[in-house]
Model the fold of this input.
Amino acid sequence: METQRNAKQIKDEVSLVEFLARLGHQPTHRSGRDLFYRSMLRNENTPSFCVNDQLDVWFDHGGANLSGIKGGNIIDFALAYWHPTTFLEVLNKINDIISLPIRQISSDPYRQKRPRLKGTRVANYRIRDIKELGNNPPITKYLEKRGVLEQAQGKIKEVYYVIESGPKKGRTYFSAGWQNENGGWELRNRIGLFEFKACLGRKGISFFNASSEKLSIFEGFLDYLSWLKDNPNAADSIIVLNSVNLLDIGIEKAKTYHQISAYFDRDKAGETAFGLLKHKLPHAEDCSEVYTGFKDYNEMLLARKSTLLPWDEENIYEKILGTYKR
Done:
């Protein structure tokens, strides 16, 4: 019979990836150092639950769960997973799970077994260049497809960076990016079938100070730009959370505003986030009914774009001529 481990032994000895596998959860893909899962703490379609298998830590980018725990080590995960179980009961449950045989972990194509590393603050990338839009056709095309190229001018940059350590050392990348208030760069791009999301540097919200009375809050920058397309003359101050897990910081920044409009995703995470905002700032208004039937503002914008009449479409003559080519 396997010896019961205490909390320190569990954190030091038990792999979070293998623990998730024992619970029946496998990653959908890998991006850099992170394995992405569909969150097992809430309902979601796009994988946003991340595990760094070198540091054995996790973070759920998609929003709050019932426990309120957003990330941490294996014990933090177990407290969220079995909420509201007590700490001692959680330790016992972990010990029970890790005594079970491992199922198909070694054949997991996304699992890259490496020695566990101690957490450091050393970045494994270097930013090579920051350019204005218009120099990189794939980035331009990405923003065109998201319907916000015009609104992105002067707000989004082209970010070029190189990986300086690990298995991808020396590889260079580029993405559309905007800077948060901590100096980090929030990145977005399309890579194959996946929507690439990352942050270079310290995570933070993005804040644009304009009005002292009116404030609009968005989960993501693309939703803000989509709203700006419909409201080009708006003079609101703007908060882009860049992650609903930064809502507490956003709330602190929003306290001085008398009129607050929230444009959160129409999903469980967005509803939970707005509930927390409303609890702290009762005068906040839920404006997500503007895009009823869609997850977010950008999704509505793209659906609107796809229903253009034939003579309103871009490059319509080329498309028509192409049907006659043999």
In short: Residues 46 and 244 are 15 Å apart (CA to CA). The longest helix spans residues 268-280. The chain has three domains: 7-98, 125-200, 206-306. Residues 102-108, 111-122, 308-314, 316-326 have pLDDT under 50 and may be disordered.
